[in-house]
Each structure stands twice: as C-alpha cells, then as structure tokens.
Amino acid sequence: MARIVQKFGGTSVADVERIKHAALRVKREVDAGHEIAVVVSAMAGVTNRMVELTSQISSMFDAREYDAVVATGEQANAGLMALALQDLGVQSRSWLGWQIPIRTDGAHGKARIQGIETDELSRRMAAGEVPVVAGFQGLGPDNRITTIGRGGSDTSAVALAGALKADRCDIYTDVDGIYTTDPRIVPKARKLEQITYEEMLEMASLGAKVLQTRSVELAMNLRVPVQVRSTFVDDPGTFVVSEDKIVEQQVVSGISYSRDEAKITLLRAADQPGVAANIFGPLADANINVDMIVQNVSEDGKATDLTFTVASGDLDAAVRLLEGAKNDLQCEKLIADSGVVKVSVVGVGMRSHAGVAKTMFTALAEKGINIQVISTSEIKVSVLVSEDYLELALRALHTAFGLDDSPKEES
Ligand code: ADP
Ligand code: ASP
Ligand code: MG
C-alpha cells in the first residue's frame, strides 16, 4: 500500500464530465488499496476569467482582494470533486487552504508555502477518506486567503505530498508526460521516461509550463518523487528523479522556450564606472528582474551599447524608469523590443561534454536565425531570437541535438 497525492490540472477538471472521469482515476487507486489525497485546480480558463474581472472592476490593484477572487475556481472544483467521489462510493471531503491550514507568507499573488498541518488529513486518510484539497491557495499571516502564483496547484500538490510523507506525487495533465520540448509546437518531441530534478527545474524556469518552477524546487528539496502523466491516456508518465537514478544520460535532455521576454538596448551609454549600477539599481528597486545582459566593448573608450532582457509585463515600467533617468545614464537612445523569445537547451550532460554551444549556434545559423543575446549556466545555453523564428529554432535545435522521435537505430 502506498500513500499517493494525485493532482488534476485545469484541463483535466474543465467540466463535469471530466471531473467524473478524474474521479474514476482516484477510485482506481483507492480500490488498489492506496491512501489517497487529491489536489485540484480550477476549471481551465476560470482563473484567467477571475483575473480579468478584478482588472475590469478596479484599476487599483489590491493583492488581497485579487487573491480572494482568483482563489475561487479551486474552491468550486474541490467541492465538485468530493461530490463526484462520493457518487462513486468513495468517502471524500473537500478542504480549502484555510481549513487545513496551508500556511504561506504574506506575499499575496505569489506567496510561498511555509507549512501544512497534516494530522487531521492523515487521520482521515488512514480511515479511508479521500481529502480533496483546493490547490493554488493558502492562508497568510494576516489570516487572509493567499494564492501562490499562476500554475501553483503543482506546488500545492508537491508540498502536500512532502508534508504527508507520501510515496509519490502524480501530476495529471493533458499531456502524457514531460517531453523533450513542448509537443504542441514540435510534433517530433519525444516523451521522456525520466528527467532529473535539476534539468526539470531549468526547463520549468526557462518556460516549460508543464510544472510550476517552485513545485520542482520543492520536490528536489523534499525528495518527493513526482510523476507527470495523462488524465486521459493510461500509459505511465515521466518520472522526475535524482541524478543518480538516471541510467543513460543525454548531453541535452530538453529544449525550453519563453515568450515572456522583452529586450531593452541603451545605445551609446557612457563607458565609465557606475553606469551599469545606475541602470540596474532602479530596476531592482522597482522589483523588475533583469535576465540576460550583454555589454559591448566600447570602440573609443567613451560610449558603449548595453542590451538586457526583462519579462514582457515589466517592459513598460522599465522603459518609463530608464527614460526618467536618461540624463544620469548619459545614453543617446533607448530601444525597446517585445518581439523576442528565449530558447534554451538544457542537460546535466553539458557539465562533462564540450560543443553544445557550437552545435546550437551552427543549427540556428543554418536556418538563417540571428542570435541577439546569449547566456549560459552549467547545464543550459539560452539564446534570444526574434519571435518570428520560434518554431523554426525549436525544430532545428531538436533535430540538431538528436532528440527527434525516431527509432534509435536510425540515428
Ligand atoms: P495543467 O492545466 O494540467 O496544469 P498546463 O497547461 O499547466 O497543464 O501544462 C501542460 C502543458 O505544458 C502541455 O499541454 C504542454 O503544451 C505544455 N508543455 C510545455 N513544455 C512541455 C514539455 N517539455 N513537456 C510536456 N508539456 C509541455
Ligand atoms: N488555477 C491556477 C492557475 O490557473 C492554478 C493552477 O491551475 O495550477 O494558475
Ligand atoms: Mg499547470
């Protein structure tokens, strides 16, 4: 007998029929003798609708009320799932974040889970009851409802699995596992049997939305085995595991992309100490995260061009700030460009293999794709390219790194 947390994402519980179907998945594990806790997302599209409503009703952004509104989708689905389970003869009860409670910090809209009280849930699970926990929400220090960031039900599930000392956390979604890249864009994407926590952490933070980044970080720290699998197809999914469990390691395991990128270039900024601090200081103070940065060598020793990226949503605010400080920066011109995407190749094998950057740049050059900015870390290489080339770049790189879904002996 195992203790398993089963999490169902928005498309898996998008309507009554699908909730009933997901409930059958739960019942099957219960009938197999396992102790089960369920975490549900809101119906697909509902959270977006709630976000839209808050912005329609008021331009004043009050994060506490935002959370009170956007957390509602999960509340409804927790109750509906408990009803569906009861209908199948499975004892079940819904639980909201505050009822457990799932305690978080007070950063409304992007709160972090700090602790989950599990005594009551554990007792009920041992007695055969299936708790259905509303994902995405918790209870802040001021006793108000918090939410933990978009896509956060993954993190609720992993945190609950950790607190319950579950044997596994199964993330049920609309794909049957983690692929070498987004299968919606690259039809030749291949399903991975396993991926390391570290690689998945990079893939997620570089844009692969299949798991929320924080959920992978938490799974890695708490050593929770995670399986991503399909609600609709019966095959086993992909296991996220520690590096020592991987038998055959590829140099590049996957390719991520992010459309949420914007580029700012400062032309002919003064080339003297303190200028970079003048640029990035105010951005940091305004909570604007800067990602990739390149500064050219200045030809005359007087002025240089500097390019960096921010999240698309921060572009306007960043430009406003920098325009305001243009005199201090002593730059001639500021150019903003939101038509860019970041494409990243990820693999722990990079630590011991040279040549990844060369293969990447050659594959892009052969397709005539210009690289605007480059950044690297131990296990990834990222490039910024025009958004027009996203699909072409992904497909070319997927082929260049031998990831295409074709029988092994052919390659
Ligand atoms: P859920 O609503 O179940 O949480 P998400 O939409 O958040 O589902 O995540 C699943 C989606 O993630 C898939 O439909 C797929 O398009 C996308 N995705 C992006 N990158 C990958 C990848 N490498 N492997 C699998 N799916 C990916
Ligand atoms: N419903 C929330 C969202 O859409 C949380 C989740 O689905 O994981 O972001
Ligand atoms: Mg998701």
Structural notes for this entry:
The structure is a single chain. The chain is globular. The strands form 4 sheets. It has an 8-stranded mixed sheet, sandwiched between helices. A 6-stranded antiparallel sheet has the order 14-15-13-16-18-17. Strands 4-5 form a two-stranded antiparallel sheet. It folds into 2 domains: about 5-175, Acetylglutamate kinase-like (Carbamate kinase), CATH 3.40.1160; about 245-405, 2-Layer Sandwich (VC0802-like). The protein starts with a strand and ends in an 11-residue tail after the last helix. Helix 2 packs antiparallel against helix 3 (about 65-70), helix 6 runs parallel beside helix 8 (about 215-220) and helix 7 (about 195-205) packs antiparallel against helix 8. Strand 14 and strand 15 form a beta hairpin. By secondary structure, the protein is of the alpha/beta class. The chain contains 13 helices and 18 strands.
And the CATH topology of the largest domain? Carbamate kinase
* Shape assignment: globular
DSSP strand tally: 18
Uncertain stretches: none
For the sheet with most strands, the description reads: 8 strands, mixed
CATH class categorisation of the largest domain: Alpha Beta
